[in-house]
Amino acid sequence: MADIRDMYMVHAMLRRELGLLPRLVREVEPSDTRRSGIVGAHAQFVCDVLRYHHEGEDAVLWPLLLERGGQEIRAVVPLMEEQHHAIEAVSQETLRLLPQWRSDARDGQALAAVLDRLLADVLEHLAVEERQVLPLAEKYVTTAEWRRLGEHSMGRVPKKDLPLAFGMAMYEGDPEVVRSVLAGAPKPARLILPLLAPRQYAKHAKRLYGTATPPRASHVA
Fold first, then answer.
1. pLDDT tens by residue, 8-42
2. Alpha carbons within 13 A on the beta-carbon side of 13
3. pTM for the full predicted model
4. Which among 30, 174, 175, 197 is most buried, taking Cβ atoms within 10 Å?
5. Is 33:98 a contact under the CB 8 Å cutoff?
6. 31 in helix, strand or coil?
7. What does the pLDDT read at residue 82?
8. Residue 221 scores a pLDDT above 80
9. Residues 76-98: what's their mean pLDDT?
10. What is the DSSP letter of 143?
């Protein structure tokens, strides 16, 4: 059956990147449009990755669990869907504020406050999912179906951004889990991504955080 450990890797990435974002925004000086452009582009990317992740669950995971999980899943899937809708609403509010802030770096407090809300909603959702959903996924979803879930989510990421997205996830990932995730990928990806993805994220993090080794999720959220 499904090896769900890669989901914890993705969740750690979301906790870390979303947890660091509000402070990043608050630290941008008004009129520093170079910095607001860098931070704003990252915020856009993280919101996109979050959306792709949730769309994969909506399209692949919930139908499988509802079909097989019986009573123990019927109460939790509607809650997951409700939380996804709430998170998407706050994410869209973030994306609405981003263009203006990226262009003039003004009123970052308003954007940071929305990001605080987004973080709170995501943290609540991830905790419930890890406690109630992932044990059932491990019980009812096959390896092939779980792989299809990952392919659905990563398939939405533009190809040029895949190394960065994968590097963000790999940063706190167990090497064994990373190898397992890549096992079904085409050979070029299996060979290139383990080398390229961490470099891409290190370069991105250095530009964004001033260090290639930002705080891990357990020290952020």
1. 999 999 999 999 999 999 999 998 999 999 999 99
2. 23
3. 0.95
4. 197
5. no
6. coil
7. 97
8. no
9. 97
10. H
**How many Å apart are CA 192 and CA 103, to the nearest integer?**
35
Give the Cα separation of 51 and 156 in Å (integer).
Answer: 9
Which SS3 state, helix, strand or coil, does residue 142 take? coil
Residues 161 and 193 sit within 8 Å (Cβ to Cβ): no
Q: What angle is formed at CA 90 by the lines to CA 210 and CA 147, rounded to 5 degrees?
A: 75
**Block residue for tokens 């669950």:** 57
* 18-31 CB burial, b ≥16 within 10 A, e <16: bbbbbebbeebeee
At residue 190 the predicted structure's pLDDT band, cuts being 50, 70 and 90, is confident
Joined together, the tokens standing for residue 135 give 């044990």
Taking 90 as the threshold, does the pLDDT of residue 72 lie above it? Answer: no
- What is the SS3 assignment for 169? helix
Task: Please give the C-alpha separations between residue 150 and each of 15, 66, 98, 123, 146, in angstroms, as whole numbers.
Answer: 18, 19, 28, 21, 7
Domain boundaries in the chain?
A: 5-157
Which residue is listed with tokens 């941008």?
A: 28
Region 5-157: CATH code: 1.20.120.520
Please tell me the distance from the alpha carbon of residue 171 to that of residue 139, in angstroms, as a whole number: 28
Signed CA dihedral, 198, 201, 207, 209: sign only: negative
| Alpha-carbon 92 to chain mean position | 15
Q: Are 21 and 115 in contact (CB under 8 A)?
A: yes
**Please, what is the Cα angle at 140 between 138 and 64, to 5 degrees?**
115
